[in-house]
Amino acid sequence: QFPLGRRLPCDIYWHGVSFHDNNIFSGQVNKFPGMMETVRKITLSRAMRTMQDLFPLEYNFYPRSWILPEELSLFVDEFRTMKDSNPSWKPTFIVKPDGGCQGDGIYLIKDPGDIRLTGSIQSRPAVVQEYICKPLLMDKLKFDIRLYVLLKSLEPLEIYIAKDGLSRFCTEPYQEPSLKNLHQVFMHLTNYSLNIHSGNFIHSDSVNTGSKRTFSSILCRLSSRGVDVKKLWSDIISLVIKTIIALTPELKVYYQSDIPAGKPGPTCFQILGFDILLMKSLKPMLLEVNANPSMRIEHEQELSPGVFENVPSPVDEEVKVAVIRDTLRLVDPQKKKRKDTHLSFHTYLLIFPTQLQSLHAGVAGMKDKQHKHHSLKLSLKLKFYLKLGSCQSLKQVPEASEELPDAAKSLEAALPSLCLKQVFPKYSKQFGHLRLVDRVAALFIRFLGVKGTTKLGPTGFRTFIRNCKLSNSNFSMAAVDILYIDITRRWNSMGIDKESGMCLQAFVEAFFCLARKKYKLLPLHEQVSSLVELCENRLAALHGKRLAWGCG
Ligand code: ADP
Question: Can the keyword Ligase be found in this entry's annotation (predicted)?
Fold first, then answer.
């Protein structure tokens, strides 16, 4: 912590809430600019809708959602149409305030007329979503899964998933929603922060019982019931990769605005919390993505009225310590420099003082004489460094640095294997075709012009149309301006953002509109990919020409 400000640049910056410090010019920051905004309920629902429009079958893991208040009439119309075509359809919906967390302000409804419009909906926008009525139950209770995902890099895209997560249980036996039980939060909402207040909440010392358990303990139970857990994991991995692919276009716009290309700046990584619900059919459904998942490894216990004590929580500790430890192992800057697999000694000293001590203790028990001799020497040195107690003093011991690779090697061996599993680029072949909006975003960013902005002005939009040669006798530049004004005005009237101009989602809408116009008969994703390709080719040709003129 630097309560009085920093003097020296750091390798890793660990921010509590968001990327907010524009005075960082190197190193790695544990937050991406704009992540909090990108995963808010409304923005996430919009991004998922775009992907559902393009790839409906691939993105059927996110419940159908409508944004309130702007899509209230659309929601009502779609509800009526569905009801008319199937009168026995008795759905339930869940209303969730945008930017809310911990179940705050959430309620269930059976009919669009039950949405509480009393003034607040205008000031507090929300998402209304199809409620998953048949979740998988365990011990008759509904539960959800919190999985930790490391977005290690945006460009190139690198995603890791933690092999274990948390399962959070409701505290009242589940019943399918009916008018009688709609308001029973302990039955329908799995939030820890709510259920902890139920008299039935069980804090457990073990990782496979109680109201919060490890996900691996659930998998064990499912496996013993004959469930194909490998297939379940592969479905979860696919859900995570697809969700991140839906988020990257927006993230890239924020990134270039805060850390413009060509300027010195840090790189970013971020631990995300994915909330997933398993349906009775075992299909995983995405509920939401948290930019700041709680990393607490203890909980509060009320000893006597008003007197609280922090008590360790073995389940949280088991899962979360490994996630943070391995995130640091993966982003370790010394490791990058040496291009080998060992964690830098400095990083060890920072995060694993206890491991160092136990390594020292373990050396005495070694059988191989030569190894023991070397390790003993090393371990004595480690003890000495530990006494020094800080990286600053370590740097002042010149001979220490020569021993670092060896020290790191032995320490790496003393650590458990990585709990974070790389899934992207590992599975990039399977999912690469879904990165279409990323390419649309690349076009958008190219024409943004002024650095530091996230919105495209009318001139930028015109230049895009002109350089990609998209206007013709059927689509005049006047029509281009009208398209820009129409779409931009609508998006700006919905947003809270005061910056004027065309945001990425508005550009995507305009782009889809142009694609539909140009390639009438194709399915939407083919229309869009054809137009993207055309634009990329025309821009490449233009660039080639400009280079040739420059040389000439
Ligand atoms: P919050 O950020 O306030 O926790 P969530 O979207 O995570 O909001 O929803 C809170 C809880 O409500 C979830 O943990 C889950 O138990 C339940 N829930 C949310 N959406 C659905 C849904 N579509 N179907 C069934 N249950 C849901």
Answer: yes
